[in-house]
Specification:
The protein has one domain: Phosphatidylethanolamine-binding Protein (Alpha-Beta Complex). The chain has two helices and nine strands, in the order H-E-E-E-E-E-E-E-E-H-E. The longest helix is centred in the N-terminal third of the chain and has 18 residues. 31% of the residues are buried.
């Protein structure tokens, strides 16, 4: 019959101590997302963003950045390339706001550093697979606790090394393109 006893001084203190933790546990975690109004995740990348079109970078939007995100890194690569993963775009030290890149945004230089892609240049190089089965093009967005500190012209491998330990969250967007 001890169930009807009032909560003692220590029991009440313990209950009050865990209430804030329970309140935090109920909050849904923020999920970082990377999307494009030009194509759906897993959908076909429009020709205008490829070497068969105007070869402009597609518009991209991101949301759900974690608290403390001070910088972003963005890498787009083709894991289906015949010679192994082919890197098409490397950007880092991107300002988290505004939370988007407009179509063709890659022409400007403010608010980020350019990396070197597999074509040995610092530029957007859109999908350009050989004839055959469509290739997957994966946009990898990383939210970072601090800028990379890298000079312009870093490779994908250098960027990935620099963001190790600084990555708060990651989001991916995949598109297909074939010829």
């Amino acid at each position: 019959m001890g169930y009807n006893r009032p909560v003692g001084r220590f029991g009440l203190a313990a209950l009050l101590a865990v209430l804030p933790a329970l309140a935090c546990a109920r909050r849904a975690p923020t999920i970082m997302k990377l999307t494009s109004p030009a194509f759906q995740n897993g959908g076909t990348i429009p020709k205008k963003y490829t070497c068969d079109g105007q070869d402009e970078s597609p518009p991209l939007d991101w949301s759900g950045l974690p608290e403390g995100a001070k910088s972003l890194a963005l890498i787009m690569d083709d894991p289906d390339a015949p010679m192994g993963v082919w890197v098409h775009w490397v950007l880092y030290d991107i300002a988290p706001q505004p939370a988007s890149f407009a179509e063709g945004h890659c022409r400007g230089t403010s608010g980020r550093s350019w990396g070197v892609e597999s074509f040995s240049s610092q530029a957007w190089r859109g999908p350009c697979p050989p004839p055959g089965k469509p290739h997957r093009y994966i946009f990898h967005l990383y939210a970072l606790s601090a800028p990379t500190g890298l000079p312009s012209g870093a490779t994908k491998a250098e960027v990935l090394r620099a963001i190790a330990g600084k990555t708060l969250a990651q989001a991916e967007l995949a598109g297909l393109y074939g010829r």
